[in-house]
Amino acid sequence: MPKAVILTSTFLKSRVAESTQLSDAEKIFMPQGKEFAVTEFFPDRGQHLRLILASPLTANDGSTKLQTVFVYDPHIKIEGEEALRVIKLPVPYFSQVGNEEIVRGGRTWYDWRQCNTTSNAMLADFLLKGELTQQAKAQGLPEPESVYMRIVAKYGDTTDHSAQTKALKDLGIDTYFSYTLSGKDILTSLNAGIPVVAGFAYKMDGHICVIVGYNPARKVWFVHDPYGTRHGSSDSYDIGVGGAFDEYTNGTMQRIFWDAGGEAGWGRIVTSIKGKPTGLESGL
After folding, report:
1. 67-103, pLDDT tens digit by residue?
2. Which backbone phi and psi does 159 adopt, to 5 degrees?
3. Between the chain's N and C termini, which has fewer beta carbons within 10 Å?
4. Dihedral through CA 109, CA 121, CA 144, CA 215, nearest 10?
5. Is residue 283 assigned to a domain?
6. Are residues 272 and 191 in the same domain?
């Protein structure tokens, strides 16, 4: 079972907020060097970790018991073999650069607009064990996205999340797009072997990538970015270069995935594949 070690005297908190804003029933003072067991831990907003304690601890009011708590990440270290397990799903990487450009309703889908379609094509090809790749070869199309973009085009524009949902359903993948995903939600999906197509802040319109893993020891997320290699949380890119398993730190994720005001992670949750439930929650 993972063990938490307090590096700097701090508070365990029932919600992400300044400790001075919390009542004694909402926080637990933890001195430097204190150790305790946790069953689960997840990166969360505001550079915090969400911890599930192995046993409830008593809050500063002397009576309230807390078991799900938040702690400022730099103030704590998680130890133990379970805490160091790296998730790195073998998702095929597709680049949106050089995609076919198709016309729908008089509007051209230029390749620089196809991050959503390319990211969902990566998700679908992985979950369907290369089905899109096989169809592209059978139909003489240049790449898996060529198959998938034609399905999306039946329902709407490449940027339309509802059109993507309908296209995935045509392939037997039931999903929904959420605007309130936490780190726990993403890691639950990754632990189930399912990547998360996610929306990131980028210029005025945003950008869609695929979260394919996490390294808890190094505190980095692995992201397939169909546009290339992003320079941290900036709007600068090496376009068409790299993009597979890019490493996003928790700090980068905080700046471009979660906002400072609360959980606001945008992403797609897969609820069933070919009629088989994934066990992931609905309505996140």
Report:
1. 999 999 999 998 886 666 889 999 999 999 989 888 7
2. -85, -5
3. N
4. 130
5. no
6. yes
